[in-house]
Amino acid sequence: MKVAILSRNPKLYSTRRLVEACAAREHEVRTIDPLRCYMNIATGQPEVHYKGDKLEDFDAVIPRIGASVTFYGTAVVRQFEMMGVYPLNESQAIIRSRDKLRAMQLLSRAGVGMPPTGFAHSPDDTRDLLQLVGGAPVVIKLLEGTQGIGVVLAETRKAAGSVIEAFRGLKAHFLVQAFVKEAEGADIRCFVIGNKVVAAMKRQAKEGEFRSNLHRGGSAELVRITARERATAVKAAKVLGLNVSGVDLLRANEGPVVMEVNSSPGLEGIERATAKDIAGQIIEFIERHRKQGKTRTKGKRG
Length: 302
Prior knowledge:
The structure is a single chain. By secondary structure, the protein is of the alpha+beta class. The chain has three domains: about 1-95, Rossmann fold, CATH 3.40.50.20; about 115-180, 2-Layer Sandwich (Dna Ligase, domain 1), CATH 3.30.1490; about 180-285, ATP-grasp fold, B domain (D-amino Acid Aminotransferase, Chain A, domain 1), CATH 3.30.470.20. Helices cover about 30% and strands about 25% of the residues. It contains nine helices and 16 strands. A hairpin with a 6-residue loop joins strand 3 and strand 4. Helix 1 (about 15-25) packs across helix 9. The longest helix is centred in the last third of the chain and has 14 residues, at about 225-240. The protein is globular. The model is unreliable at about 300 (pLDDT under 50).
């Protein structure tokens, strides 16, 4: 099998582990910077070129697309799809997951548990918006934020109003969510491959911090999840159409609630916390499901 890994940095832990997993199974693998790809969008003969060469004969593509290059990166994935290459995660599924508002709306429609969430445009609606999510404290999230960046905890109505006013002054789009106090600064990252949670870890925020992201100094440990948490994570991934994802849950009083679904989840934290070969399981999934031209969306919006 010939595999392309779309990654801007071949030295990243996740990229290196995927390369190692391919090599261990004697697959040919190549790491490709998606921003160095350029495309020939010709009728009936779509092509991807890279550093002067035409990329062809690949059986599968593994997108490791950073949030900052979502638009161009997913265009490259879509071009591979048009060429009949099997994508680990399809371009449209990645786009769904990266649009936090769209993802929340789709999860809500499917009945997936979420914290009370609000979205508005006019500053005149701030008071009612806060009431919709149960009042302060609230978490305010930029739609474009990643790894905990652009996420603010407003502990009072006045503080929330000030943050919302500042974000609106920057013409930024954001969500307002109820703060799940009972989670006590911890969340659960469920790593989903296909229809199964293959690993889970508990991430705990450092003292004085409410964001549990490892990039923000949080710690991680192996955790046993409930059947309901497992089912919630799998359903969230399925709703967004992701074959591989990291689903972040909070343990709320009413049950597990989804905070985010990540289409390019990192491998370092989850592999070290669980001592599992997640990269190997990803390649095994591709081996079982790869088929030329096998995509669900065929480039359509959804």
